[in-house]
Amino acid sequence: MASTPSGHFDRSIVEGPIAPAVWKLAWPTMLQNAFGGLQGIVDHVMVGNYVDYHGNAAIGVSWQIFLVVMVFVSSLFSGMGVLVARFAGADEPAKVNRTVAQAMITAAALSVGILAPIGWFAAPALLDLVNAEAAVQVQALPFLRTMFVASLGMMMFFMLGGALRAAGDARTPLRLGIALTVLNIGLNVILIRGLGPIPGLGTMGAAIGTNLAGTLVSGYAVWRLVKGNWVIRLSGTSWRPDWGIIRALFRFGLPTGVQGVAMNIAGVLLIRFIGSLQQSAEAQAAYAVGYTELFSLITWTSVGLMGASAAFAGQNLGAGHPDRAVAGVRVATRIGLTVSLAVAILFLAMPRLLLGVFGMRDPAVLDIGVQLLTFLSVSGFFISVALVHTGGLQGTGDTRSPLYISIVSQIVVPLGICAVVQSLRELQPADIWSAILVGHATRCLLSVVRFRQGKWRDIRVEIEPVRT
Known about the structure:
globular, disordered N terminus
């Protein structure tokens, strides 16, 4: 939707036809994720062609490690989304504005005080943990340290986009996302390969471009929020810490943060299993491109639908319409399954062509990558349904259930399968890909069952009134 005067939320989300309202929230986020995914694709394509597959492996390994820490620091984003959606659904703009301001100052403190120092000093040990080869570590260490130290702009970008979507404005984050992607691609083209007097920086150039673009775009977004002509208005809002709101942010957000950490630790340990394979560098490169980039054709849509489900369900619960929340999740599920089918056909019909775009020419890398895409063509259906229902749970305030579900489905199941197989015989790539598929199927089943139980209907959200 277009920019909306402060305090005038889009009431069609809680009062109008359900399918158009879900689609209104979903398509801008899906398109934004697609544009955002181009950043990673460009990074991998350029690094794969100007460095080699060791560079692809370095970026894939580094991102997996980086997300472990960043997801925890940004856990308050989920809590913010719960509060903003509820208050927007109840048409309480002052509470929406207060919540976003407190989320911003908390995110800044956590990024500077936790993410940057821990990431800088822990980066070498973390790369050792995932069994990254020496050639991969040479490329990964500067990339990883740059991401840790300079990530505040990207964190603010994702946080503000989530706040606007939860308040019902999904188009403004789309415009910001397009600007971010265009700027990032331009910077990466210059910094990865070099241009004129600027030397080629390889993988570190990709990290610098990503964070510089995030800082510029998020800075503009903060200025517009303070100026006061978007649906969220920060002008006149107090910037002193409000511990009641901050506690509420972490009450709802911390389980999501722990969930994110658990899932990404599982991802790091999965990479460790990949690193134990006979062709570890080839398998890590195939995983970085196949799972991290090409599978994002599914996750772009699914994460967008998860955000739409969360905003729609949260606003309708805030407005006292829980049955509309259920219907909205069903609509989002149908959209996700349709996209998953199209991507599955693509993965099965032209896997080598897709991998070749990323500079994957080594025969061993190609064979492993084709095998991975075959498994992912099935896995996409499960993860799409799982994420939509996760959004419905989290948007209504049930952030603990997805945590428990993730521990079972993303840690116990896949890592357990890999550990058992490795104890019996030499681990093969297909064993790891099978474990990923079973984990996604488990997450899908548990998420659907938990949402249909309907216990989220009784969750209450309140913050203390402003003291004058």
